[in-house]
Amino acid sequence: MNGPFVLPVRDLMHRPGQMREFTLDLALLHAWGEGLVAVPEGTPLDLAARLESVHEGILVTAEVRTRYEGVCGRCLTDIAEPVEVEFQELFGYPGDEASDFEVRDDHVDLEAAVRDSIVLSLPFQPVCRPDCVGLDPVTGEKLTSDVTREDEIDPRWAALKAYSDPADADTE
Question: Which domain holds residue 96?
Fold first, then answer.
């Protein structure tokens, strides 16, 4: 069992109370995430993990830092923002109760736990800035917050405008 996220735990196994800390600086081998934003392949990832032996297995507490890239969901401007997540997972010993993560061959593989925590923290509707107003539906140009655009009125409904705005009805 090998890979950048695989950590040895032989000296911790079945020794409750024992602890080790790891710091990993990696570059992602594959992109993580789908949709408007993702963490691209080759992006640096910093991982600080504390592995603690408990009766049920190895408890992993970790902090992860990386960066996502993509486009704004409103105006399609390129964006890149930092991602910082923390997680805690129990890697159970083989043969005990079923768990999502297990200690295998005296090692724990953190890749799935790290990937899941990062991907789940990515914004579903990312924006370049909180007050982004998006694109003009007619011209496709990026709108600014100080621009107000009057909606064009369908000529078939223009006569009804007089009923909705009494000031305009008096001037006609």
Answer: 6-121
